[in-house]
Structures are given as structure tokens and as C-alpha cells.
Amino acid sequence: MTNPLDFQAWAAAGQSRIEAVLQKLLPAPEIAPQRLHQAMRYAVLGGGKRVRPLLAFAAGELSQADPERAALAGAAVEIIHAYSLVHDDLPCMDDDVLRRGKPTCHVEFDEPTALLVGDALQSLAFQVITEFKLCDDAAVQLEMAKLLAIASGSRGMAGGQAIDLAAVGKVLTVPELEFMHVHKTGAIIRAAALLGLKCGAPVSAGEYAYVDTFAKLIGLAFQVVDDVLDVDASSATLGKTAGKDAEQGKPTYVSAMGLSRAKAFAEELRLEAMKSLDSFGERALRLRQLADFIVLRKF
Amino acid sequence: MTNPLDFQAWAAAGQSRIEAVLQKLLPAPEIAPQRLHQAMRYAVLGGGKRVRPLLAFAAGELSQADPERAALAGAAVEIIHAYSLVHDDLPCMDDDVLRRGKPTCHVEFDEPTALLVGDALQSLAFQVITEFKLCDDAAVQLEMAKLLAIASGSRGMAGGQAIDLAAVGKVLTVPELEFMHVHKTGAIIRAAALLGLKCGAPVSAGEYAYVDTFAKLIGLAFQVVDDVLDVDASSATLGKTAGKDAEQGKPTYVSAMGLSRAKAFAEELRLEAMKSLDSFGERALRLRQLADFIVLRKF
């Protein structure tokens, strides 16, 4: 049932598709202002596992979504994600120089350009989610755009960043950590799954809630795994600077519960996420495989 | 016909209305993350002439738009404008300490918070433009959100900023200056007028184009006046640091054509803008008065 080769082929096809869509959505490098467009493309293209778009594809399979529509919804989320990385890496935030194995945007270009790259990418994400027909019902598509806006904003991703900033140097409890990550990374991961789902036929409120729960748990697992990898893996494996969390005094699941307990917690979250998919049967195959991919990726 | 007292009362009522709407749209300061929400409110509330929302109201009068809808559309544009000011003032951009007579956001709070304030405000603007019913036709409202996204992005405001950055220390011709400003400030001013118009009954393509032309010319005039005031007025009058343009080696209409020619150019633009409203007759009263307000405000 869960033939890993099959999943790898599916994921590779999805990654290729999303890369092609992003290539087309991003303004061409020769269009003015050229340097900004070159930097936007640098920040988005040719890197990342594209987990969020894959979640949009996989959730879209539950509602028979047209994969072209799910790709555009996933691309909008991926563009939001890319903008957040560019701004996170800025000197006034994490001050990081390496991302996806390449110099960060402000290192490769310059700081004001990186600031504008993030700003313009966020606008582009909302252009994508409103410009193309992603759903037969325009009113539902407006809800999709609103969902992305809330997930990105002060009660979603940007708010999670603010909580993260305030937490540096502090000891957080596990519930406090969860609150931070549900916002910082979880909101956008949930948006990816829910937007993919909404590209297709309407689903029941119950089914919608199951997918939301799944995405919430997987989003959290994703962060726990990230914290584990920051301790456990090398910069070369990560494609970003390893050990930064401890160095910057950031509270992590590893600092809150220790390495082996954090690994076990990721596994618990994965199993709980799987349970929320029970009612979908075979239709949720790709979501299950993605959960495995996210949690089991490196250890 | 153009009784100035009457306009002042209309503008004051519009400013009060938009302030009340912004108060409600911005997350309350006691909602977590509190500091971010406090900083967002600091950046948006209690300042500015609200020219963009007033344009949305005035254009909405041409299409019998419900003023509540025009207020929300205007608020979305004002929130985009406010975010752009917060990011422009950052140390890596204009490095300004005074805005609307108050310390800039990164001075009053801190730099990472100001970065996130801008990011979260942009998300909020797209939440506003998609969350409330601004138009009877959801498909048209999707177009409105798309219009705001394009106006904000790399081929609009953010792109104009990038052109501005690249121009520091250079001598620009008047057409080059125009290209920069049509993007940097013009795109959002046009969006304000067009979104206000779209809140009401559908208008002909010709009428839409007239309003667009008007807004484009007034947006340019607004910038020329800004350049003039940067030379001609004190910091106290401006509520921001005067003389910064020359100090930072920024090309302006004053540096390109001299002070008196720049003043005359603003007046030419105003008259040309007025002409584009001829076919609307009395319905365009407020737009005409706004044009006067924008161009004649201080000299």
C-alpha cells in the first residue's frame, strides 16, 4: 500500500510541477525592476522540499481537485513561505548567511533588496490566490484568499515570529512552545492542506476538520523534527547553518524535553495525525506518505 | 460649487470614519502577540491625512458605492500604505526616525518588531479586502483583491521602492522620475480610487479609464508636491524629517527641474487631472476637491 518508490515518484512529479508553476508565476528576470525580480527568483526557485505544495496536492486528492488548481494554491503558500525565510534570515532577525545550501538573499544581493523581495513575494502570493480560477465558486475562492491572509498575518505566521522573538533567551514550557509553533510554522502548513482541499469539490465540515487536525499535528511534528535536526545534523545535510538555535538561545523541543524525548514526541504526533485520516481510507494515501516523509526524513 | 468649508467637513467626516474602521480592523492591543499588535496600531492609527481612503470614498461616489464598503476598501489600501512607511523607515532603507510627528516604528519599538509589523499589516490588508462583502459580485471582489496585490507588488509599490533604491546618487531624467513614482506611490493611489469605484455599480470601461487617468495624474502631482515640500517646509510642518532627499542624494523633481518649475509642473498635472473628470459633471465634485487638496495643500 505505501510503496516508498511510488511515493518518491509522486513527490518528484509534484516538485517538478510546482517548480514549473513557480517559474511561470515569478516575473521574468529581464522585466524591470530587474534586480528585484532576479532576487525574488533567487529566493524562491531551485530549492526546498516543497512540503507545503505537496500537502496541497495530497489534500486536493481527497476532494478530486484539479491538480493545476492545487498547484497554484500550493504555489501561493510556497511563495509566502519563501518570503518568510528571506525576512527571517535578515540581520535584524536570525542574521543567517546560509539557506538551502546557498548564501541567503541579503548576502547574495543586499539588505534593502531582501526586504523588498519579501514584501513583493507576499503581494505575489495574494495575486496568485486571487488571479487564477482555483475554485468554481468565486465566493469560496475569496474565503481561500482570506484563509491565506489570516494564516500569514499577526494571528498566524508573522505573529508566531513575534512570539519567537520574545522567547529568545527564555525557557518555555512545552505548551508555550506549541503555541509558538502552531503560529510560526503551523498556520501556513494548515493553510496549504486546507487550500488544496478547497480547490476540489466541497467536503463535509467533519472531513474538513479531520484534514485541519492532520495538518496541525504534522505541522507541529515538522517543527519538532526541525529542532532535532538542528542538533543532530550537519550544516551540509541541512543546507542551512546547524546549531543556530542553541547558539541564539532559542527555546526548542530539544531544550524543553531533551533529544530522545523530542524524537519520541515527533513519532507520537505522526501517529496521532495518521488517526485523523482513518475515515478517508485509501483516498488519504498521499497524506499518510507525506506525514512519514516529514517526520521520518532524516533520522 | 467648490465651497472649501464643505470639503473640509466632508474630508473630516471621511477621516473619522476611516479611523473608526481601522480601529476595528486592527487586532486589539491585548490580543497575543500583544507587542506586535500594539506596534501595528501605533503604525496605523492616529496619523496621516488618509488621502487614499478619501480617494476611495470620492471615487465611490461616482458609482453610488455604499460608503461602508468604500471605507473598507480604502482601509485596506491605507494599511498597505502604512506597512510601506514602516519598512521604508527601517535602518536598511531610509533610516528615518520621525514619521507623522512621532518616532518611527522601529525607534518606538525595535527593528525586528517593525519588520514584522510591516509583514503582518500587508497580510491584514489582504484579509480586509477578501473578508468583508465589498461588492455584490464575488468574482469582481476577487478582481479587487488582485488589483491591490498587483499595485503593492514588484510591478507596483515594492518595485517602485526598488527603482528608488537603485536611483540614489544618480541623476534621473524627468521621464525616469515619472517611471519611479508611477510605481512607488502612484500604484497604490490608483488602486485606492479604482477600488472605491468598484465597490459600487459597474461603470463603463471609458469611465473606469477616466478615473484611472485622474488617479495616475494626481498620484504624480502628489509626489511632485512632496518633493517641493521636502525643500520648502520645515520638519515640524511635515511631521517627518525635512531635507532628507537632498541629504540622501535622492533624485527629486526639484533636483531634476528646479523648485519653481516643479511647482508649475504640479499645477499642470492638477489641471490635466481635472480634465479627465469632465464627463462626470457634478458627480466628481469630491474628486476635484481632493485634487485641489492634494496639490494646493501647503504652498
Key phrases:
homodimer, 299 residues, mainly alpha, Farnesyl Diphosphate Synthase, two-stranded antiparallel ribbon, 15 helices, globular
What strand line-up does the widest sheet of chain A have? 1-2
Largest sheet of chain A: 2 strands, antiparallel
Shape of chain A: globular
Largest interface: A-B, 53 and 53 residues
Indicate the structural class of chain A. Answer: mainly alpha
Strand content of chain A: under 5%
CATH architecture of chain A: Orthogonal Bundle
Rounded to an integer in angstroms, the radius of gyration calculated over CA atoms of chain A is: 18 Å
Could you name the ranges of chain A where pLDDT drops below 50 across 5 or more consecutive residues?
none
Report the end-to-end length of chain A measured between terminal Cα atoms.
23 Å
What CATH first level of chain A would be assigned?
Mainly Alpha
Total tally of structural domains of chain A: 1
Considering DSSP H and I runs of 4 or more, what fraction of the residues of chain A is helical? over 70%
Number of helices of chain A: 15
- What order do the SSEs of chain A take from the amino end to the carboxyl end, as H and E? HHHHEEHHHHHHHHHHH
